[in-house]
Specification:
With 255 residues, the protein is of the alpha/beta class. Helices cover 32% and strands 16% of the residues. Strands 2-1-3-4 form a four-stranded parallel β-sheet, with helices on one face. Strands 6-5-7-8 form a four-stranded parallel β-sheet, with helices on both faces.
Length: 255
Amino acid sequence: MAASQNTKKTVGIVGIPPLAIISKIENGGYIVFDLDEPIVQKDIECASPFLPRVYCAILRTVIVNSLTLMPEEIYIDVGPGKCDCAMHTATILADILPVTKIIRTINQDTLDFGTPVCSTRMALFDKMMAITASVRSTQSHTALPRCTPTAGFWGVPPRDFSLLSLFPDTTHVYGWTRCMENKTPANRTLEEYFNPDVPTVFFAQSFCAKTALARHLANRHPRGLYLDCDVTAGNSAKAKIQAFFELSGVTDALG
């Protein structure tokens, strides 16, 4: 669906734009594409002529989506709330999409919106869907009851949400995903926080710079599992999660 086929302005977002940008998009009634998500059904190898395979699957997905959807504007966070690779991806997008306006942003918002979704009883898949969707809004989440955690997921939203089905509904979410719900992606203190009392999977996309922090924190956690996946979560990664929860006594995990 090319931008020229729509009557409304089409914009893409990469990472979490500042609240001022999201407010502008909301008030403009634009069609919004979260380019981090696998929207179009195309082989991720379509990104290979533009990004090396050592870039994470999320940024390669951004390239595939952008080439297919061709939004009129793309707002891409190139600050500490995303990564240096996003900054270089912005440069590449500007070269390969001359009809698209690439707008580099730096999100250093500090207003806390809270993290009720991260801490409530809900299927982890549904939590992740709600959190990623919230990027497009300046509104806070509705208050939700906090559950007692039996497991933890620390890290970024995976490209392949199928691995989330292996976690119990009483999983609390930590890491950059929690920063995402709080709308403060550059909040390092919040990102580094974890609960040492619950078995926690420390996840990052393969080739993402956050793999270093994920592994470091997993080593500090008394019951932590470091895990990284590239494009999809294979049987080996899923088996590691299942075995980890079984050994940790998490009896209500699914799968």
